[in-house]
C-alpha cells in the first residue's frame, strides 16, 4: 500500500470520492466551494511533489462539491520544474487506489485561434505531445503501451458540452499541444503548432492524461485561455498575464464543472 493512501483513508473519514479534479491556474478558488472540506497540504502526504509555480496552491482538498464527493488537487508539478514527466504519477496512483474512476484536468493555455480570445474556455478533445517526453518511460511492464485513440472520454466530453449549454457559456473545443516550458513558445513555434493542427498550447496536462489512462481512469480536460500565442498580437508573453487572465476564464470553467458534476 502507498503510505499516502493509508493516511488519506484515515483522514477522509469514510468519504469515497469517485471524481477528482486537478485545478490549474484560475481555478484555485474552487476549493472554497467544497462543503465539509478536508484540507491536507501536499507536504503532509508522503511522496507528493512540491510544485513551485507562483499562483498554484499545494494541497489536496476533499469533500462534497456539486452534490457529490470529490477530491481536488489544488496545484500540480510541471515537467519543467525538475525535468520529470512522471512527477504526477504518485498523486494519480493515490487517487486510483482510493477508488477514483474519473479525472478532470484543467490548465491555463495560449490560444492559436482568433475566435478563442483570452477569457475563453476550450474543451480538450485531443492532444499533441510535442515535447516528446513521456511519463511512462522506464515503466517495465507491457502496460506502458497505452492506447491513446480515446484518451478523452466521449461521455465526459458530452457531459461538459451539455453543462456549458445549460449554463449559457460558450465552450470551444480543440487540440492542445504540450510544450515542455518554462520559456514561452516563439512565433515560429506557434506558426508550426497551428500548421500541425493545434488550437491551444500549454506546459502541463498531457503527462497526466497519459498516466491516468495507464491507471485506467476516464479523463476529461479543459483549458482556460489566458493569452494569444507568441507573434499573434506582437506583445511579449509573461506569467503575470497568465495569472491576471486565468480567473476570468476560470469563473466560466468553474460554472461548467459544477453543472457537469450534477449529472454524475
TrEMBL record:
Q: In which pathway does it act?
A: Purine metabolism; purine nucleoside salvage
* Positions contributing to phosphate binding: 25, 56, 76-78, 108, 204
Positions of a purine D-ribonucleoside binding: 185, 227
Q: Which sequence ranges form a coiled-coil region, renumbered to this chain?
A: none
- A GO BP annotation: nucleoside metabolic process
Give every Nucleoside phosphorylase domain span: 18-261
- Which Enzyme Commission numbers does its entry carry? 2.4.2.1
Instruction: Return the InterPro entries for the record.
Output: Nucleoside_phosphorylase_d, Nucleoside_phosphorylase_sf, PUNP, Purine_phosphorylase
Write out the GO cellular component annotations.
cytoplasm
Q: Which UniProt keywords apply?
A: Glycosyltransferase, Transferase
Entry GO MF terms: purine-nucleoside phosphorylase activity
Q: What family, per the record?
A: Belongs to the PNP/MTAP phosphorylase family.
Read off the PANTHER family from this record: METHYLTHIOADENOSINE/PURINE NUCLEOSIDE PHOSPHORYLASE (PTHR11904), PURINE NUCLEOSIDE PHOSPHORYLASE-RELATED (PTHR11904:SF9)
Protein task: The purine nucleoside phosphorylases catalyze the phosphorolytic breakdown of the N-glycosidic bond in the beta-(deoxy)ribonucleoside molecules, with the formation of the corresponding free purine bases and pentose-1-phosphate.
Name the NCBIfam families for this protein: PNPH-PUNA-XAPA, PRK08202.1, PUNP
Oligomeric and partner information: Homotrimer.
Q: What is this protein called?
A: Purine nucleoside phosphorylase
Amino acid at each position: 500500500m502507498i503510505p499516502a493512501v493509508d493516511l488519506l483513508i484515515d483522514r477522509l473519514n469514510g468519504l469515497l470520492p469517485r471524481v477528482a479534479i486537478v485545478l490549474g491556474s484560475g481555478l484555485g478558488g474552487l476549493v472554497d466551494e467544497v462543503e465539509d472540506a478536508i484540507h491536507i497540504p501536499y507536504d503532509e502526504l508522503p511522496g507528493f511533489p512540491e510544485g513551485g509555480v507562483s499562483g498554484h496552491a499545494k494541497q489536496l482538498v476533499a469533500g462534497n462539491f456539486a452534490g457529490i464527493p470529490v477530491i481536488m488537487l489544488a496545484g500540480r508539478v510541471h515537467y519543467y520544474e525538475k525535468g520529470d514527466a512522471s512527477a504526477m504519477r504518485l498523486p494519480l496512483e493515490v487517487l486510483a487506489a482510493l477508488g477514483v474512476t474519473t479525472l478532470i484536468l484543467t490548465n491555463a493555455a495560449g490560444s492559436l485561434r482568433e475566435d478563442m480570445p483570452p477569457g475563453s474556455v476550450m474543451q480538450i478533445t485531443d492532444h499533441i505531445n510535442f515535447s516528446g517526453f513521456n511519463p511512462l518511460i522506464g515503466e517495465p511492464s507491457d502496460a506502458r503501451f497505452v492506447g491513446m485513440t480515446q484518451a478523452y472520454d466521449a461521455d465526459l466530453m458530452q457531459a461538459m458540452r451539455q453543462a456549458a449549454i445549460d449554463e449559457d457559456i460558450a465552450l470551444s473545443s480543440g487540440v492542445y499541444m504540450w510544450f515542455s516550458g518554462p520559456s514561452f513558445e516563439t512565433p515560429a513555434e506557434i506558426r508550426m503548432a497551428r500548421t500541425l493542427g493545434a488550437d491551444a498550447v500549454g506546459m502541463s496536462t498531457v503527462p497526466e492524461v497519459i498516466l491516468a489512462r495507464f491507471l485506467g481512469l476516464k479523463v476529461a480536460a479543459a483549458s482556460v485561455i489566458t493569452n494569444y500565442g507568441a507573434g499573434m498580437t506582437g506583445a511579449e508573453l509573461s506569467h503575470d498575464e497568465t495569472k491576471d487572465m486565468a480567473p476570468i476564464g476560470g469563473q466560466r470553467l468553474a460554472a461548467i464543472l459544477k453543472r457537469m458534476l450534477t449529472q454524475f
